[in-house]
Write a structure and sequence with these properties.
It is a single chain. The chain is an alpha+beta fold. It folds into 4 domains: 143 residues, DNA methylase specificity domains (Adenine-n6-DNA-methyltransferase TaqI, Chain A, domain 2), CATH 3.90.220.20; 100 residues; 145 residues, DNA methylase specificity domains (Adenine-n6-DNA-methyltransferase TaqI, Chain A, domain 2); 188 residues, no CATH class. Helices cover 44% and strands 18% of the residues. It is built from 21 helices and 26 strands. A 4-stranded antiparallel beta sheet has the order 12-20-16-18. Helix 14 packs across helix 15 and helix 19 crosses helix 21. The longest helix is centred in the first third of the chain and has 40 residues. It is flat. The structure holds a DNA duplex (20 and 20 nucleotides).
Length: 606
Amino acid sequence: MKYLKIKEIGDVISGSTPKTEKKEYWDGEINWVTPKELGQLHEKYLTDTERKITEEGFKSCSTRLIPPGNILFTSRAPIGHLAINNIEVCTNQGFKSIILKKDYASEYVYYALKRSVKKLQDLGTGSTFKELSKSKFEEFTIPVPSLPDQLHIANLLSKAENLIAQRKESIRLLDEFLKSTFLEMFGDFTKNEKKWDKVELKYFGEIVTGNTPPRNNAENYSSDFIEWIKTDNIPVDDTYITKAVEFLSESGLRYARTVEAGALLVACIAGSIQSVGRAALTNRKVSFNQQINAIQPNEEIEPLYLYWLFKISRKYIQDAASNGMKKILTKGGFEKIKMIKPPLSLQTQFAQIVEKTEALKTQYQQSLQELENLYGSLSQKAFSGELTTKAQEQKVVIPIKQEAKIIQTELTKQQAFLRKLMLASHIAYELCEEPTFGHTKLMKLLYLCEQAGGMALQTNYKKFAAGPFDGKTLTLIDKEFEKNKWFTIEKKTFLVNDQQREATVYKKTDKSLLYKKYFNNYFESEAKTINRIIELFRKEKTQTAEIVATLYFAWKELKAEKTIISDNALIEGFYKFHPEKKKFTPEQIMTGYKYMQTNELYPQSV
DNA sequence: AAACACTGGTGGAGTGGCAA
DNA sequence: TTGCCACTCCACCAGTGTTT
C-alpha cells in the first residue's frame, strides 16, 4: 500500500460561474453544478444538473469540463460534498475536482476521500467561510493499493453502503405504514368520510401557551431545575421532544408554564410557514417558550393518536395561521381548529399499532447502527491495508452476508429463486422416500415453510384447486433438479375413481446432498421452523397438507382484511378459495383448524 | 485562489397595546 | 394585574457571486 498525494493520482481543477446577469450564458446544453446540488444528492453518482450553461457562457469564464467517471469534491460551502460524475460536467468555484489518471479507480478514490472529509475540513482556512485551498488539497495524501485491490475495496464498501441505504428505506417505509394505517382507520379527515365527531381543539384537552421568564433576572436561569423547551426541540421525524438546551431554576419556574408527560407541543410561531404545526409529544414534565402551544390531552384522547393526527394534517393546521411577516398560530386560532375525534377505543387500537411499529423501528435503527459500525470498521481496514489479501477478504464478507439476511424483502428475483430451490431440495431430500410425497405436498410444504419462516421469497402463490400453488416455480424447480442431477423425477399414472391421475416421484441421486451447504448458509435462522414443519407432515396425508395450506392462506387473507378470526369466517374463506374445495366437509376443515392451533402453525400478528 | 460582500432564510425573544 | 396578540428587532447561518 502506497501513500500518494492527490496531485499524483490526477489533475485537480477548479470551476467558475459565468456572469448570472447575462442571459445568453444560461440555459444551454452544458451541465454546471454547485455545492448545494451536490449536498442534496443522496447517492454516489451525479447524473444530471439543475442548471445548464451555454457554449458562450462556458467560454466566458475559467470553468472546465470534467469527463464522466471522475471525482467532484466541494472545497467550500461546505467542504466535503463529493460525487462521481456520470456525465460530462463543469462546476462553479466551490469545487476542487480530480481528473484521475488511468491507474486509479474513481470509486476507490471516492471512498478514500469520503473517509477523509473531516481531515480535509480541518485544513480549510478563512474567517467568513472555511475554504480548502487547491495546494492543500493537492498535497493531501491517501492510501492507494494496486488497481485490482482498489476495485475490490470499492466493491465491498459499496455493498455495505447499499445495505445501509436499504435499511434506511425500510425505516422510512415504517412511517409510511403508520400514515396509511391512520388513513385506513380514520379516513381522509378533511372529508371526514367516516363521520367522526369533529370538534374544536380546546375539547381535546387544556391548551397552554408557553413563555419566557424574565431574562433580566439571571436567577431564573441559574440552575437546571426543569427543562425549557424551544421549537428547536421539536423534531421533524421523531415522536418525542429532544433534550432541552436551556433550563429554568426553581424561581424561574414560578413564571413559567408547564405540561406533564403525554402532552403535545406544537410550534405555533416560526420563521417560515413550513415550521408551523411541527409537533412532538412530551414524556416528562417540561416548561416551554411562547413559540409553542401545548395540548395536555383529556381522558378522551390518546396522545399517540393526537400526535399522528397533527402529523397527517400539518397543512390544514398551517392554513389556520395568520399572514403577518411572521406566520403565527395564535392561541385563540389554535383552540378553534376543528379536528376529528374518534372513540377512545379506536384511538387506543391505533396507539398499540404505533407502539409495535416503533418497537420494530428501534430494532431497525439498531441494525442500521450495526451496519454503520460495520461500514466504519470495513473502511478502517480497507484504508489501513488489511483488505488486500484473499484471506482477509473472507473474514469481512461473512458479516455482510449475515446482515443481508435481515433484509430479505430486497432480494432480487434470482436470489429469491435460488433460496426457494434450496428450500425445495431440502424438503424433497427429507421426504422423497415417503409414499405420500409428490408435487402437491412439496408445494404445500414450500408454502408453509415460506409463510411460517417469514421468508420473502417472492413466490407468486395463486388459488388453485389443490391449494396455494405456483406452477411456474414448480416447473423451474423440477428443471433445476434434473439439470443438476440432484434428484431424478418419474411420473407414475394410476386410477382414482376411474379418473387417471399422475403422481410425481422424486428419487435421490449421489449428488443430492450438494444442496446442503447452500441451504445451511441461506436458512441458518429459519432451519428450525423448516424442519419442524417437515417432521409435522412427514407421515400426514397430502390432503392434510392441502387443508392446512389452504386454511393458512384464507386465515392470512382474513387478517389482512382485519376480520376477526372465527370458525365460520375461516370455513367461508376456505370454500371461497376455489370451487374444488367443496370436496372437504366443514368437519374436515375444523380438524385442520385444530391441528394448526395445537401445532401453533398459523399467521402470526404483525 | 483567496477574501470579501451580498442575499435571504430561520429561530429566538422583547415590546407595547389591549382586553378581561 | 395578567394574559394574549401582532409586530419588530436581533443573532446567526448557509449559500452564492464578485472583487482583489
